Amino acid sequence: MSSDKQVHLILVDGSGFIFRAFHALPPMTSPDGTPVNAVYGFTNMLSRLLREHAGTHLAVIFDAGRHTFRNELYAQYKAHRPEPPEELRPQFSLVRDATAAFGVPALEEAGWEADDLIAAYARKATDAGGQCTIYSSDKDLMQLIRPGVMMMDPIRQKPIGEKEVLAKFGVTPNKVAEVQALIGDPVDNVPGVPGIGPKTASALMAEYGSLEGILAGAESMKASKRRDNLLAHAAMARLSYELVTLREDAPCPEPLSALTCCDVDMERLGAWLSDMGFSSLLQRMGMKPRPRSHTPAQASAPVDDTVPDAVLPPIPAEPYGPYDTVTDPEVLRQWVNEARAIGVCAVDTETDGLDPLVARLVGISLATRPGKACYIPLGHEGDLMDALCAAQMPVDVALEILAPLFADAAVLKIFQNAKFDLLVLTQAGCVQPAPIDDTMLISYAQSAGQHGQGMDELSRLLLDHTPIPYDEVTGTGRNRVVFSKVDIARATPYAAEDADVTLRLWQVLRPRLRPNRALALYEEMERPLVPILADMERAGIAVDADDLRAMSAEFATRMGVIEAEIHTLAGREFNVGSPKQLGEILFDEMGLPGGKRMKSGAWGTDSSVLQDLADQGHDLPARILAWRQLAKLKSTYADALLNQINPVTGRVHTSFQMAVTTTGRLSSNDPNLQNIPIRTEEGGRIRRAFVAAPGHVLVSADYSQIELRLLAAVADIPALRDAFERGQDIHARTASEVFGIPLEGMDPLTRRRAKAINFGIIYGISAFGLGRQLGIPPGEARGYIDAYFARYPGIRDYMERMREEARRNGYVTTPFGRRCWVPGIADRNAARRNYAERQAINAPLQGGAADIIKRAMVRIPAALADAGLDGRMLLQVHDELLFEVRAGDAERLSALVKQVMESAAVLSVPLVVETGTGTNWADAH
Questions:
Q1: I want to staple 208 with a disulfide (CB 3.0 to 4.6 A). Which of 46, 159, 213, 402 is the partner?
Q2: How many Cα atoms are found within 13 Å in the side-chain-facing hemisphere of 901?
Q3: A Gene Ontology molecular-function term (predicted)?
Q4: Range of weakest confidence among 41-45, 178-182, 230-234, 299-303
C-alpha cells in the first residue's frame, strides 16, 4: 500500500446495482441470445466510474448467496423475497465477468452479505487514515456514513451524506440502524415493532436517545397502542437491530493493499465487449470490435441497436450548449441520420401562440445526446430581415427532411407534453411522429400531486439545472414579443436547450418507471392516450351560435330579475358585482352575523361566506349566489363559447390537460367543460348548445355510480356489493340497511338522506357538512353517519387504511397502482391536515374511476375501426364519454361502446354504463 498517498477506497455495491439496472432497462440480448440488459447497465456504469473516479483503491462487492449468518439469527429473514426473474439469473455470472474484464477485484464471502463486506472495508480504509466512497443508494448502507465515509448515488451521480440521511430518516447516520430496528423492513422481512413508522421512530429517538432508551421508557409512556406494541415486541426490536446492523468485523477476502487501482488490459476488455456485442462502449473507449471468441448460438441484433446508450444511467454531465443553428438542408439531413443511427432523439417545437390548432410553427429543436442539440428556425420574422432569417428553410422542406425520422419505427421520439407538439406538427403538414415518449407523463405516472410536471420544474428538481426563462428571450409586459419576432441567435440557445433538457429528463425518469411500479400505467394508459386525445381535440364539437346568443340574452334577463329582487331585499340599489359594496350591505347595514374582514379591511363575501348565511335562512345571500351562478355561466359559456369557435372548422376545440390533477383525472380548458353544472336547469341549457353535425347524432356513455362501486369493491362491503350485483337502487338499499326501513315503499326523503351519505362518505363529509346539505342539525347528521359506519364498518376501516397509507408513504394508490401523492398529510395545521386526509380517502376512488375510463378510451378507437364504424370520440368529462356518429349507426356504436367500457376493468361488482342519443348533448345525456 502506498504510504505517500492517502487511501481513497471506492466500493461498488454490485449486487444492488445489478437489480436496479435490470429493472431500469428494457430487455436486451447478446449475439448468442443471452439476456444482458443488467450486464449492459453495469458495464456502462463501471466504464464511466473507471474514467472519472479519483480513488486509489477500487472493488466491486457481491452477495455470495442468499443464506447468511442472519438466517441463523432469524429463520424468516428475507424468506419472502421472490426468486430472481429467469432473465436475470444468467446475468449474475456475466456481471462478475464484466468486473474481471475491467481488471477490478470482485469480492464476496460465503455466509456474509455484500453490505457487511462494504462496512468492513470502509472501516479498514478509515483506520488507515483514508476515506471511502460507496457507490450505492441503498438505505441500508446509510448507517455507515461518517467523517471519511460517504455514499454516491450511481444513477443520479449525487453524493449522499448526513444531510440526506437526516432528510430520509430524521436521525443522524449512527442512529439509522436503531430507527430501522423499530420500523422493520417488509422487503427483508425484518419484523420491527408493529405500528411504528419512520416519523414515529425518529420522534422516539429524539426523545429517548437510543433504542434501549425507548424500550426502557415504554413502561412509563402514556397508555396507547404504541406503548403496548413497544412492550410486547421489545425482543423483536432487539433482534431486528441485530439483523439490520452491518458488521464491520466481517472477514475481508483480500487485504486492502490488493485493491490498488491498476491499468485496464484493453486487449482483454475489448475481446469481452466484442463477445457481448457492446459496440457503442467499444467506440466510446476508442476500440474496434474484435472477432468473437465463440460462435453465436443464434443471430441477434447488436445490443446497442436494441437499446441506445441514451437510456442508460448514470446521467452524463455534459454542459448545456453551445448549440447549433441549422439552416442548411444538408446539415439537417446529417442530424436526421445521426438520430436514426442512435435510435432516440428529443424533439420540441416553438410556436407563435399557445393554441396548437391555431398557432404557427416557428421552429423545431432536436437533441441526439446530452449537450448535443440544434434549433431549426422556420418562421422567424422581423422589420429588419438579416441574412440568417433569410436563410431559414421553408417549412415544407424541413418537414420533408424530418419525415423519415418521425416515421421511423426504430427511432424513439421524446417530447415534453407530446400532445401539444403532435398537434402543432400535424397542423403544419408533418407526418405524425411515432413511436413517442413523453417526459411529462412519465413523471406524472410516478408523482401525480407530488410536484408540478412542467419542464422547468422537473429540470430544477431532477437535473439541478434551471433552463433559460421564456421571459428572458421574449421580454415581459408591454415589451413582450411573440417567439417569431425573437432574433434567431437568441432563440437558438433557448429552444435547443428545451430539447436537451427533455432528453436528460427522459434518461432520469424512464428507468424509474419499473421500480416505482408505474411502467404498466404509463405504457398501457398514459402514453397510448396522447394521440387519442390529440384526435379528439382536433375533431372538436359543434355549437349552435344562435342558441348561444339567445342563451346569453336569457341569462341576462334572469340576472336582471334577480338583481331587482336583491335591491328590494337590501333596501337600496348597489353594484351586485362589487364584493366591497355587498359586504357593506350584509354586515354594516343589515348586521348579519359571521362577517370577517380581510387584510384589506373589506368584508369577505366569497361563496363559502354567502352559503353559510344562506343556510341560516337569509334570503339576500341566497339570491346573490343565484345571480353569481348565472353571471358565471353567461360569461364562461354563453358569451365565451362564441369567441372560441374556430373560424376554419366552425367547431369548439377544448384542450385536455393530462398531468394536472392528483388523481389521474383529465381536466379541460378553453373551454372548461368539466364545470358545467350537471343537475341544474342552467347546466342542461348550456349542454343543449353543443350539437351534432348535420346527419349525425351525439351518443353519451356514462359510468353509473362508478366511485360507489369502487368503494364497495376496495372496502369489500358485502351488502353494497350484493346491491350492485342485483342491480338494486343503491341509495334505497343503503337507507334500508342503515335505517331499518323496508325497500318497498321507500320514503323519498329517507332515500335522499342515504344518497347524501353515500356520496358524502367518498369525500370524507363531516356531520356539519351533511347537516347543511340535508338541512338538519349537525347532531342529527352525526347520528346518521354513526349509524352508517355501524352498518358498514368496512368503510370506516378503509378510510383509516387510506389515512395511514398516506401518512406512511406520502401517497395512496388506486386499485390499478397509480400513486396519488397527498401533500399536507402531516401538516401541523389541523384544517390543512384534515383536508389532506379527505383527499387520501377519495383519491383511490376518484383515481380508480379515472384509470378505468382511460383504459376504455385507449381501447375504443380500435374497437370502432374493427367494427367499421366511423363514429369519433369528441369529449371526456369525468365519467362520461361523448361521441358523434351518423344517425343510422348510433345504436351499434352505443352497444359497442357500452361493451368496451363495462369490460375495461374487472371488479368484484359489475361496471354499468348508461347510454343516450340526441341531436344535442343535453338530450344525449
A1: 213
A2: 26
A3: 3'-5' exonuclease activity
A4: 299-303
Q: How big is the chain, counted in residues?
A: 925
Q: Which residues pair with 58 in a beta bridge?
A: 10
What residue has cell string 428538481?
Answer: 461
Place of cell 430544477: 460
- Asked if residues 141 and 168 have their Cβ atoms less than 8 Å apart, the reply is no
Cell of 585: 350591505
Q: Give the start-end residues of each E strand in 370-408.
A: 372-377
Among all chains, which residue has been given the C-alpha cell 425484518?
190
Which triple of cell numbers denotes residue 389?
432569417
Q: What is the pLDDT of residues 275-331, one digit of tens each?
A: 888 877 777 777 766 655 543 333 233 333 333 333 334 444 688 989 999 999 999
User: What are the strands of the beta sheet with 131-135, ordered from one edge?
Assistant: 106-107, 57-61, 8-13, 131-135, 149-153, 158-160
Q: Which three cell numbers stand for residue 78?
A: 428475507
What is the residue type of 473? V
Closest CA relative to residue 377, chosen from 398, 359, 358: 398
Burial class (CB in 10 A: 0-12, 13-18, 19+), 505: buried
Provide the CA 229 distance to its chain's centre, in angstroms: 36
φ/ψ (deg, to 5) at 86: -55, -35
The SS3 assignment for 141 reads helix
For the chain, the farthest-separated pair of C-alpha atoms sits apart, in whole angstroms, at: 99
Neighbours of 318 (CB within 10 A): 12
Instruction: Check if the beta carbon of residue 881 is closer than 8 Å to that of residue 866.
Output: no
In three-state form (DSSP H/G/I as H, E/B as E, the rest C), the secondary structure along 263-300 is CCCHHHHHHHHHHHCCHHHHHHCCCCCCCCCCCCCCCC
Per-residue cell: 867? 367494427
The Cβ-side half-sphere exposure at 539, using a 13 Å CA radius, reads 21
Read off the C-alpha cell for 475: 421580454
CB atoms within 10 A of CB 776: 15
At 530, is the pLDDT very low, low, confident or very high (cuts 50, 70, 90)?
A: very high
Three cell numbers at 827? 401538516
CB half-sphere exposure, 790, CA atoms < 13 A: 10
863 is written with which cell numbers? 374497437
Taking alpha carbons only, the member of 347, 515, 499, 351 closest to residue 435 is 347
Which strand (E) or helix (H) includes residue 16? Answer: helix 14-24
Q: Measured between alpha carbons, how far is residue 114 from residues 17, 60, 211, 254, 432 in Å?
A: 12, 9, 25, 14, 49
Q: What are phi and psi of 409, to 5 degrees?
A: -70, -15
Helix-strand-coil split of the chain, %, nearest 5: 50, 15, 35
Q: Label residue 832 exposed, middle or buried (CB < 10 Å: 0-12, 13-18, 19+).
A: middle
Phi-psi region of 845 (alpha: psi -120 to 50; beta: other; left: phi over 0): alpha
Domains of the chain: 8-165+247-258 (3.40.50.1010), 324-540 (3.30.420.10), 661-708+817-925 (3.30.70.370)
- Give, in degrees to the nearest 5, the angle at Cα 223 between 221 and 225: 105
712 CB-near residues (< 8 Å, 6+ apart): 720, 721, 723, 724, 908, 909
Looking at this protein, which amino acid is placed at residue 644? Q
Q: What's the one-letter identity of residue 662?
A: T
What does the block give as the cell for 751? 332515500
Q: Would strands 412-415 and 344-351 be described as parallel, antiparallel, or unpaired?
A: parallel
Task: Identify the CA nearest to 113 among candidates 141, 134, 82.
Answer: 141
12 with 107: CB under 8 angstroms?
no
Indicate the pTM of the whole model. Answer: 0.66
pLDDT cut 90: percent of the chain above it: 55
- The span from the first CA to the last CA of the chain, in angstroms, equals 81
Cα 548 from Cα 195, distance rounded (Å)? 59
